[in-house]
# Entry
Amino acid sequence: MSDAIITVEDLTMGWGEVNLLEKASFEVERGEVFAILGGSGCGKSTLLRYLTGLDEPKGGSIYIEGVGKPTLEVGRPAYGVMFQSGALFGSMTVGENVAVALNEWTDLPHDAVDAIVRAKLRLVGLQGFEHHTPAEISGGMKKRAAIARAMALEPSLLFLDEPSAGLDPVSAVELDELILTMSDGLGLTVVIVTHELQSIFKIAKRCIMLDKKTKSIIARGDPRELRDKSDDPRVHNFFNRTTEST
Amino acid sequence: MSATPKREPAFQVEIEEAGGPLIEVRLTGTLTFLDASSLWSQVRARISPKMKEEVRFDLSNVTSIDGGTMALLVQTKWDLQEEGGRCEFTGATGHVQKILELYEGDAKLNKRPKQKPVSIIAQIGQGTYDALIELQLVFAFLGRMLLALIGVIRRPKTGNWREIAPLMNRTGADAVPIVLLINFLIGFVMAFQSAVQLKQFGANIFVADLVGLSISRELGPLMTAIIVCGRSGAAFAAELGTMKVSEEVDALRTMGFGPWRYLVFPRMFALFLVMPVLTLLADLVGILGGLLVGLLSLDLTVVAYLNETRNALHMWDIFQGLIKCGVFGLAIGLVACQQGLATSGGAEGVGRRTTAAVVTSLFALILLDAGFTMLFYVLHL
# Structure
């Protein structure tokens, strides 16, 4: 029996007359790094918005920890989210960004919150940066700070939207290692939207690939196996960076 | 300033019209973007999209060409084809052929669907639809805000109260100099204008009554609200709009707190608290502006002017101004936050919503002011 932390059934997503995905179903298992792949504009980030409850799907169901339809703003969140831009609050310092959810959802005294903030920033390699504002740190550091913020309440599930986009190769590899460390060491389930192939092969245990033309999931499984064994030219082209006719 | 010296084009265009159904355009030399304007005018002077003859561009003597000039030649070909004419490129080799292929000069014309002009009826329909969608957004905002307000009233600890003091500093303390200056000048100008008339009747002293009453009942709250709208309303809309487009509002939502109790309520509450204080200051300096005119041009004494003002004003005159400005503060905060959170589409969207926030707030202020005036009149207050 599978131990699914996320179950998606017959999901249809889009807006107005336009559908990006129709009747798609998949599961994310507890403790795995799960990648959502596909070409630009196929709806990867939109799917992430549905999974996190930011937008309402046109049809179908999403269950997180067995509970239907993720609801926001009604209590302590069950998961953390890192947005593509980091989305750190510009009016706060890095430390305050991490402390926001702790102050809101716990009764911890100020010094305990500070200790947790420092520990989270240490975890992502940003020790000593708690008093810097987001404008004073680099793009890679912003993403790390955003992960620390998403991790503040010890979630068991983390959503990451294109974490390595726009990073230099070394920072991207460091971020991959951080995600692996968190997943292996903390037993965290990570759902990641990306098209960085190196990153996918390194960290993702399973993946799904969305296709804009057919509005469906055209591949699912271990990304390394899909790269080596898939007969589907669309999947082959994606994983092997080729443009052979489909 | 010296003008850029005019350069000779590095190409030649020869157009051969045999008199038959074929026109041959022979291009020679190097075609670079620096000569694009000259090429375009020379070719277009002779080759009209409406012409019926077949046009052939001979590129065999072109030694070099860049993308910009190729784009112009290809566009000429497509314009001819769109009108039903025939056109082709010949003689291209090597680098020229590669650029020709890159710019699809050898491809068939993909006819672009012509956009039909939108009729006035359709424009009115679209405008009405957009207005209804906007109205729906406003009602959705108010509904969600009401739910959040009930939540905060039931659990006051969930309110973002810490934000209120810095917001009051930004919207109140920082606005004091401009509020003082504008309202002093308003009192000053109003006293001057009225003094000219009242002097004729020997009623100089009544300038104090006029200035005191109009400032405390009407102009003090209204001018203060307009200043706050321009400063803080615009700032709130731009701030929240930027947070919305940079996903900061989404980040807040995924952390379990909605923008209403975290962003909207502190702003509205801060404005509600600072507006009466600013209005009291506005009333005071407005009266001082009138006093200055009384001293300088009406031969009144300080004591006489202030005594007349005290006799003319009742507590209710000041109090009704404070009621108005409290409501004005809430309205400015509400409109600015609603517009800010409705932002989409990047920097341009932020600008559009900021403008809309100021315009809508001003409109709302005038409407509310008229409503209060009618209400107080009907209630004989």
